[in-house]
Amino acid sequence: MKIATYNINNINTRLDVLLRWLEEANPDIVCLQELKCERNKFPEQKLKEVGYNAIWKGQKSWNGVAILAKSEIKELQDDLPGEDEEFTHSRYIEAFIDGIVIACIYLPNGNPWPGPKFDYKLRWFQRLADHARDLVARELPVILIGDYNVMPTDLDTYKPEKYVNNALFRPEIKKAYRELVDQGWTDAVRTLYPNEPIYTFWDYMRNAYERNAGLRLDHFLLNKAVAKRLKMAEVDKHVRGWEHASDHAPVWIELADNNLPEKKNTEKPEQQVQRETQTAQPKGTGDWQTLLAAAPKANMPAKPQPMKATLVREPFDDPGWLYEIKWDGYRALAVVENNQAELISRNNISFDQFHPITDALGKWNANTIIDGEIVVLNADGKSDFSAIQNWQRRKDGQLVYNVFDILWYEGRDLRELPLTERKAILEAVLPADETIKLSKAFDVNGIEFFQAAEKAGIEGIMAKKADSAYTAGDRSKEWLKVKVERRQEVVIGAFTRNAGTEKLFSALAIGVYEKGVLRYIGKVGTGWSEKKQKEMMAQFEPLITEVCPFDVEPDVDEPSQFRPRRLGAKPFWLKPELVCEVNIAEITSDGKVRQASFKGMRSDKNPKDVIIEVPADTTATVAKMDETSELIITKTNRKKAMNKTIKPEASFLDPEKDSQTVKVNGCPLTFNHLSKVYWPEDGITKRDMFNYYDQVAEYMVPYLKDRPMSLNRFPNGIHGPSFYQKNVKDKVPDCMATMPHTNDKGEEKEYLVATNKASLLWMVSLGCIEINPWFSRVQSPGNPDFCVIDLDPDKQHFDQVISAAQEVKRVLDTIGVTAYPKTSGSTGMHIYIPLGAKYTYDQSQLFAKIIVSLVHKQIPEYTSLERMVKNRGGKMYLDFLQNRPDATIAGVYSLRPKPGATVSMPLTWDEVKPGLTMKDFTIHNAIQRLKETGDLFKGVLGEGIDLMAVIQKAQSAF
């Protein structure tokens, strides 16, 4: 049974968030606090529609509590016993559900202290303690759930020193809570995580949940009749990142059907002393200690970055290389310090959801940084990527952290040591744990190792130079990765055609034979050219039949996680006589292919012989290799890392100076106050901002060159006042270009015209965090180079923005228009359509209006064409009016004045799918991404569409 608590902080304002979380988490019982609605305005019907009964006590002010349950609810109490003349609000209800007494609590905040509200809080707490004393000894299970507004210990807050005079931290409140628990209650979360910082509440405007920096205000107290059934507890802190979510995150516990066996304490006395005194005692003695002593002393790196490998086409065998399994999971650095651990992604995002790994690492009495891959192993011992994506929700499979490198250990920087020496140290110090595994390297024939990985169904292999240092930044050619493409022969049972498509067919329905019948295993919708489609269609036409060849007729238009809307796909059944070969990522647990791609027809295969190809057992294969091919370090001609250096990312500014003048494109530019923090939550300075724009200039300048600029200035960082400056007359250096312009109000202005990197950096020196170029150039100021559709959400989650962008693409695909998406870097998306400066702003705006009108017609439930915010009803604005003279939006590759220092980043359409977030692209990773992808936006400055032909096509298509 799953029981949750959630301080919703206004149920009607955040109803969409609540309903979304209920669908995702599927709890059996939920306690809600801070309803902020009167009794007659509680959304009972909406909750019933998703399967939840409810009781509640609503109130107009900040209080109000409710209990939701899938089962019948029998109300027992609608308030605490006792009376109080002051500050009486709806804060407590109690019910009997599925054999358990459930109490929903909202304890008053009590601020300011000292004062009458704090005194009332103490009195209210006393009433709770008196009532709890009657409940705790009952034979029935009882759980007191809710927002207690109390911090039991300093472990329950990120920075206790910030709250010296806050009522939440007063010793009187802590004492009252402790006395309540001492009646015989079990604090569920703290019991399961006795030494962990667990937070449930975060500063409303700062994304502190991403840094695991908050408070624990929400608690579950269990009496003895139910405490032994406590199985697990979690905080769904990712919900805090949803748009318009509460400042609290949902918290839940899971109860087993019966009492669980008591866990035995296997910790030895010396281990307990070691943990409590936090002393690090390395394992054993031996050569690894000599290797460690040779490494330079250094402080722990503040922002470690992983070493990245270069993808190569084929496996190879060469002396001096070691070979490892390429795991199919999430790459993560683990920072272990003072008996606490954090897993950090390659994009510097914390993997807090994989707490069994951080729990295990936190018990490691060492300070270190290691590198590895988080995987989920299925029953066959194979890493299952789909399982790791759903692990937090389903907990299916064995969670393992495969560790393959070590960067820093107990004051020693190991990154300059050769790989073989780092491996020796890692193997010596890595603790033995079923969740933490050493990923071994093998000194074997690389081609044979690849072939073994291919037979075992492993994603691929890694090849690493045995004497390579650990270098972050660009992709190293001392680490190479070789991927395995899994192939499967399949029988073609049908082709499908989506509604409204002009293609000969949209996808193939494929199957394999099993016990003499053809079983459907999914669809393949990519991998052929238009010419190949015609060739295939010639083969299909003689075989079209009215009879479905599969044993069970499949739903070929079935929605999926990433395509929730049906496409109107119609099947054309074929006699099962054609065989083709496809590439697949995997065959899922329900027997369907994932990420299938057509590779070619197979005329040499009898369809009846086509069955699912079962790879050899991974565990057995690897175990055999372990026996014969263990890595033995015997070579002596290794380069020592002391002769190598790790080069930092180049900076055009002196890191020691707070003000300096630098010539850029021959233009002297002065940069002041370089240490000023512009993004305070992230510690990002003006110097960081200048360095970013210096590095991104080669990609960004083509989209700025010859364009008038609107300067959006933030002289004191993202939280300081900002203002637009368009007129730069007599304010620009002599080396800058300008353009006189009279705007639509008749105002005479002189705009800066960007010409090169110097123009960009001069704007940034004025505090222009984001860069706002015109859509047109000075050579043709009335003719934009592109048309822009701006998806501007209000109350929508970003996944809905994604859905709207996909709808825009479907409309544009239908009329043969290529478009280029990018994140706005703030909340929405921008979709660019190249025009080639052949049309006016009015024509561009008219075209954009046609497109968004067609899109709105498809998804009217959450989009709007209303310009006035008050008339949109909280819906997403499909903005076409940006296509006008003088209007600007944040340019491509621009930083945004938002926490996290997000970047407006171009995307491939394959990336435009649910799960994408703005924080995937930041000042920290944008340059590395560009080095990998190149400029995805080049087509925006291309020849442009034939607007008249496209509009005619749209009129006929719709």
Automatic annotation (TrEMBL):
EC number: 6.5.1.1
Region entry Disordered, spans: 262-286
Matches recorded under PROSITE patterns: AP_NUCLEASE_F1_1, AP_NUCLEASE_F1_4, DNA_LIGASE_A2, DNA_LIGASE_A3
Keyword Zinc carried by entry: no
Keywords on record: DNA-binding, DNA-directed DNA polymerase, Exonuclease, Hydrolase, Ligase, Magnesium, Manganese, Metal-binding, Multifunctional enzyme, Nuclease, Nucleotidyltransferase, Transferase
Membrane-spanning ranges: none
Residue ranges annotated for the ATP-dependent DNA ligase family profile domain, each copy included: 392-516
Cofactor: Mn(2+); Mg(2+)
Bias type Polar residues, positions: 271-282
GO molecular function: DNA ligase (ATP) activity
Catalysed conversion reaction: ATP + (deoxyribonucleotide)n-3'-hydroxyl + 5'-phospho-(deoxyribonucleotide)m = (deoxyribonucleotide)n+m + AMP + diphosphate
Record-linked InterPro entries: AP_endonuc_1, AP_endonuclease_F1_BS, DNA_ligase_ATP-dep_C, DNA_ligase_ATP-dep_cent, DNA_ligase_ATP-dep_CS, Endo/exonu/phosph_ase_sf, Endo/exonuclease/phosphatase, ExoIII-like
Class of enzymatic activity (EC top level): ligase
Recorded superkingdom: Bacteria
UniProt-listed Pfam families: DNA_ligase_A_C, DNA_ligase_A_M, Exo_endo_phos, LigD_Prim-Pol
PANTHER family found in the cross-reference section: EXODEOXYRIBONUCLEASE III
Family: Belongs to the DNA repair enzymes AP/ExoA family.
NCBIfam families assigned to the protein according to its UniProt record, in alphabetical order: exoDNase_III (TIGR00195), ligD_pol (TIGR02778), NHEJ_ligase_lig (TIGR02779), NHEJ_ligase_prk (TIGR02776), xth (TIGR00633)
Entry protein name: DNA ligase (ATP)
Species of provenance: Mucilaginibacter aquariorum
Originating gene: ligD
